[in-house]
Amino acid sequence: MKNLIIIGNGFDLAHDLKTNYTDFKSDIKEHPEKYEILSINNNLLLASLLNGDKELWSDIESAYFDILVHIKDRVYLQNNYSPVNRYTTVKHMNDDFEKIKEALCLYLLSQEKNFSPIVNYQNLFNEFNGRDTVVVNFNYTKTVSEYLLDKDIELIHIHGELEKEDNPIIFGYAADHKESKKLLTQNNNDFVRNIKKFNYLFTNNETLLKKHLNSEEYNVFVLGHSCGISDGLVLSQIFMSSKIHQIIPFYFKDKVGYFNTMVNLDRVVDDYSELEKDRKSFNKLLSFPDSHVMPQKKEDPDLVEYLSNILNRKLPLEEKLNVMMEADRSANEFNF
What we know:
Number of strands: 6
CATH superfamily of the largest domain: TPP-binding domain
Number of helices: 14
Strand order of the largest sheet: 3-2-1-4-5-6
Structural class: alpha/beta
Helix content: 40-55%
Distance between the termini: 41 Å
Strand content: 5-15%
Order of helices and strands: EHHHHHHHEEHHHEHEHEHH
Radius of gyration: 22 Å
CATH class of the largest domain: Alpha Beta
């Protein structure tokens, strides 16, 4: 049984790294001198985002797409994204977006320096070592890499890495087929410059992932990823694969964290089609009592035992219970 571990921003946050959009936004406002080299004072897009009420990275990506589709509607842009309405071309906006990406890289590099390992995660990756495991890292940082230096675990930086020219960061909008087609009808390639589906093809990361998804049955472990639609293109490939065995979420803090991940996962899968029941991804998600809280700085001695039980389980929980019930019924047939 193969194991696939999804790593999201919550993994960095668990290490006390300030990698939320609000942290980045605050740093630019409080320390503008750090970003002077990027001439961000004249960045219309950044000015709009800094003055807005956006709080999530996915909000920024969605705002970028919304601006794209309304780029010719000056009134709409003035009412919702001023001073973006002053752009005369999409290329000009994309150039500013590139500067925001460069600023983000500078900021995250400064945050990486604050990394310190957590015993819980050392134990976690020790448990996965040598078990035919691949890690799909949606973060730009190298936090998870620190735990895999001496491990027999493959790592795919699906969204690129900081300071890696051959694997540049992918920061943009995950347009679906319908949305991509709408942009392509503009007959101007600048409209799709920061659409994720096109940028994935600049590396072999997605190809490597598909190779694993098609090889054999696998468990999915979700660590620090909300499973939001901003990463829907890749997540749907993972969760909708016929090879998926069960989905084990590490939720943030409490039932609310589990609930948010559960609902987001349901948004990115196509479980409302005519798929057979045993193929529906949502049915393979472990329930809250059988999931585990996302480890933070504190000690959590139950983690290794929990992982061991999950990794050695041969059947999904629901199926295992059905087998046990069937065994009980069979035994009772001989009790007169």
